[in-house]
Amino acid sequence: MTKIIELEEIKNEIEKIDLIPLIEKGFIEYSKGNVVVPPVGELLFHDPPGDVHIKYGAINNDDYYVVKIASGFSQNPKLYGISPLQGLMLLFNQKTGQPISILLDQGYLTNVRTAVAGTISAKYLAPKNVKQIGIVGTGSQARIQLKYLKSVTNCKDVIVWGRSKEKLESYKNDMTNIGYNIKTTTNMEDITSSSNLIVTTTSANQSLLKVDQIQKGTHITAMGSDTIEKRELDPNIFQIADLVIVDSISQSKQRGEVFHALKADCIKEEQLIELGKMIENKKYHRSSDDQITIADLTGVAIQDIQIAKAVYQGIINWQ
Amino acid sequence: MTKIIELEEIKNEIEKIDLIPLIEKGFIEYSKGNVVVPPVGELLFHDPPGDVHIKYGAINNDDYYVVKIASGFSQNPKLYGISPLQGLMLLFNQKTGQPISILLDQGYLTNVRTAVAGTISAKYLAPKNVKQIGIVGTGSQARIQLKYLKSVTNCKDVIVWGRSKEKLESYKNDMTNIGYNIKTTTNMEDITSSSNLIVTTTSANQSLLKVDQIQKGTHITAMGSDTIEKRELDPNIFQIADLVIVDSISQSKQRGEVFHALKADCIKEEQLIELGKMIENKKYHRSSDDQITIADLTGVAIQDIQIAKAVYQGIINWQ
Fold first, then answer.
1. Which one, of A294, A303, A257, A241, lies nearest residue A276 by Cα?
2. Mean pLDDT score, A293-318
3. Between A286 and B225, whose confidence is greater?
4. A157 and A71 in one domain?
5. How many domains, in total, are found in chain B?
6. Residues of A whose CB is below 8 A from B10
7. Pair B83, B69: CB distance under 8 Å
8. What is the ipTM for the molecules in this complex?
9. Which residue of A has its CA nearest to B88?
10. How far is B81 from chain A (nearest CA, A)?
C-alpha cells in the first residue's frame, strides 16, 4: 500500500527532525558523486504564468528513489487566494519501482529544504559578527529563512526589502511575532549598506542588487532564481566575490545567477565550489571579515530525497 | 483535496471509455504541435536492473498537466512475485499547479495506452486480410495487445514467440480463454513466415527479427524498445520498409528502434512520419497488400495525458 501523507502530518513531523545535518549529509554525498540527479524537468505555462519543476534522483544503493513536482504560479494568491507554491513529493522503492509514499506537502517541504540550504550557507559563509540580516522579498521563503537562521546566528536585527508597503507591513508583523526586530524598506541601498548577511528570495527577472552597492565583508545567499529567466544579482557582483558556492555545478550552468554570470563572463566555471565540497573543507569557509561571498542555490533533488525519506521514516516509526 | 484513485477503480472505469478515438485525438494534437512534451526523464538502476521513465506534458490551454512515473524492474516476478511494471499517474491543475488526482495504476494505464497505440497502428497499417497475428513476447503487453486488437481485426489466429516454454503455455491458456487460437514457438522464423501483422513486446537488447525473415506485405508494430539500450528489430528492416511511422519523431531520435536504424544509416529522418500525421492523411495509410510497414512506438506523454484525464473525469462524473 502506498502511504499518503497530508500536509498537517508533514508539518508536525518536520519539527522533530534535525534538518541541518540531514541536508548537509545529502550535499556531501551529492558532491562526492554518490547521488544520481538527472537534469531538472520543466514545464512553463503563460496564462496565467507558472513554472513546474520536476526534480528526481537517488542515492546509489539506497532503498529509495524520489520524484518531486513543485510549481510556482505567482498569480495564485491574487486570482485564487492560494499559495503560489504547490506540489508534492513521491518516494519509490529503488529495488522494485513500487510507490512507497506520497507526501502531499503543497510545496511546504521545498520551502523548508530550501531554507535549510540557505542556513547551511550562512553557517559557513556569514561573517562571525552578523550586524544585521538583509532579506530581499516578503514571500514564504523570506519568512521561513528567518525561522531556520536562528540556529546559526544570534542576530535578531533584520531589514527587509519589498515593493509593496502592505506586504512589508505584514512581513514585519509576522516576523516580530517570532522574535525579530524588523525594519522595512523599498530602497535596496538600505539593505546593502547595513547588512552583512543578505538573503535574496524573489522571483525577479532582473538584477535587484548592483555591484557598487555591495560592501566588503558581505555574504549573499541567492535563492530566488531557479530558471533561465529569473535573476536577482548584477552579474558583476561575481567579479568582486572571494568565494562562489553553488549547490550543484552542473545545474548552475543551466539556471540561476551563476548561469547569467558565466554568460556575462563575470566568473569562470573553475571558480565554482559545490556546497557539499565546501562543507567538508575549511579552506572554502569564510576566513576573514573582509571577504565577499556568494552562495547561489537553485535547489537539488538530493535535498528532496533527504527530506522526503526523513519525514516518511519518522512517521512510520511512530505508527 | 487531491483525489486518490486505486487500481480497481481505474480498471472498472477503463472499460467504459472509448479509448481509440481518445488516443487518436491526442496523437493528432501532438503532431500538430499543440502539446508540450519535454524529453523523457530517466533513472536507471543496476542491482537489480530497473529503468524508470518520467513522462510529462500538457495540451496547450487545457485544464490539466500530467506527470507519469512508470518503471520496469524485470526481476520483480522472480525476486518478489510482483509485476515488473510499476508506477502511477498524476493530474495537476494547469492554472494553479495544484495536484488534482493521483492514479495509483501500478503501470496498468501505461500498459493500456501502449496497447491502444499499437491498435491504432494496426488499424491503418495492417493488411486488409490479416492471416495470422504474430506476437513476440509473452508478458503483460503481449496479452493486452490481443484484447485491444479485437476492435480492428477479425483475425483470431495467433502465433506467439517466447524463450520459455512455461511462459508460452501460460500465454496460450490465458489467450485461448479470451477467444484466440494460439500456436506457440521458440523459433522466430515460424512467426515471420506465417504472420502479416507482427507485434514485438519484449525488453530485448538485441535484434530478434532479421531482415531476411521479413515477408512482403508484413506490418510490424515494435513497442518493446523505449530506451537507448533496448531493441528488437534488425535495423536493416528499415531499409526494406515502405512506410515508417513513429509516435514521436523527436523521441525516436533518442530511443527505440528508429534511434538504432538512424545510427546505422538504415533510414533518414525525412522518411519518418508521425502517428498523429498518419492518422489524418490517407496517403500514409497502407495502400497495397505488398507493402512492408513499421510502427515504432516509444510511448509519448500525450497518451498518458489523454488516459489520465479520461479516467479521472469518468470517475468524478459518476460521484
1. A303
2. 95
3. A286
4. no
5. 2
6. none
7. no
8. 0.87
9. A99
10. 11
Q: What is the DSSP string of A277-311?
A: HHHH-GGGS--STT--EEEE----HHHHHHHHHHH
- What is the CB neighbour count within 10 angstroms for residue A314? 16
CATH number of the domain encompassing residue B309 = 3.30.1780.10
Residues B228 and B283 in one domain: yes
A313 in the same domain as A296: no
> What pLDDT, on a 0 to 100 scale, did the predictor assign at position A129?
96
What is the spatial distance between Cα A35 and Cα A312, in angstroms, rounded to a whole number?
A: 20
Smallest CA–CA distance, residue A317 to chain B, in Å, is 24
Q: B95: nearest CA in chain A?
A: A48
Confidence of residue A228 (pLDDT cuts 50, 70, 90): confident
Distance from CA of B301 to the nearest CA of A (A): 13
pTM of the entire predicted model: 0.89
Q: Based on C-alpha coordinates, what's the Rg of chain A?
A: 19
Q: Is residue A67 within 8 Å of A90, Cβ to Cβ?
A: yes
B97 to chain A: which residues are within 8 Å by CB? 50, 52, 71-73, 76, 85-87
- How confident is the model at residue A319, as a pLDDT? 65
Is residue A57 located within the same domain as residue A22? Answer: yes
Is the pLDDT higher at A204 or at A245? A245
Per residue in A138-167, is it b (16+ CB within 10 Å) or e — as a string?
bbbbbbbbbebbeebbebbebbbbbeeeeb
